[in-house]
Amino acid sequence: MKSKAIQDLYPDHLAYCYGCGRNNKDGLHLKTYLAGDETVAHFTPDEKFTALPGSVYGGLVASLLDCHGTGSAAAFVCQQEGIPMEQAPIPVRCVTASLKVDFKAPTPMGRLLELRGKLRSIDGRKIWVDMTLSADGDICATGEILAIRIRD
After folding, report:
1. What's the CA gap between 55 and 34, in Å, rounded?
2. β-pairing, 126-135 with 113-123?
3. Deepest in the core among 55, 75, 85, 141, taking most CB within 10 A?
């Protein structure tokens, strides 16, 4: 990826999220990258995220989509406003207003998961992003998020 991870560009005081905050020592440290007109992130779950043997529990799937969604929203705002993804800190941070997750297939344990996001629309502080979570090219879950750009 050419750009830096959006989560690495958040101001220090806004980088403590359990799912993606670089300053949360116990967190998942998900990293979302802008890649053309979409975003991408990767995560490999280990056994502590088990639902049934060999499968990831749904809460992790939702958490990954949540953090990828808000990161994607921030990245798309930066892209739209011409804010360089190399500068830190960026003046954009988003939070979740609504998250919808549809589980399509069991999410396998110990395999590299790929999350992708596509901008649906931006209307003021509201950003809608459509997402997929897949393993080995098979879609395990889809999601849509309404993220809100927080005020300074």
Report:
1. 28
2. antiparallel
3. 75
Both structure tokens of 83: 């804010």
Q: CA-CA distances (angstroms) from residue 116 to 1, 11, 83, 142?
A: 14, 24, 21, 9
Here the tokens at position 36 are 């053309």
What six digits make up the tokens of 33? 């990258």
Give CA angle at 54 (50, 59), nearest 5°.
Answer: 35
| 38 in Cβ contact with 52 (< 8 Å) | no
**From CA 149, how far away is CA 127, in angstroms rounded?**
8
> pLDDT exceeding 90 applies to what percent of the chain?
94
Evaluate whether 20 touches 65 at the Cβ level (below 8 Å): no
Category of 54 on φ-ψ map: left (φ > 0), alpha (ψ -120 to 50) or beta: left
Q: Tell me the per-residue pLDDT of 31-63, one tens digit each, with 9 for 90 and over.
A: 999 999 999 999 999 999 999 999 999 999 999
Amino acid at position 69, single letter: G
Going by their DSSP bridges, the two strands 94-103 and 138-149 should be labelled as: antiparallel
* 61 Cβ neighbours under 8 A, 6+ residues apart: 101, 103, 107, 133, 140, 141
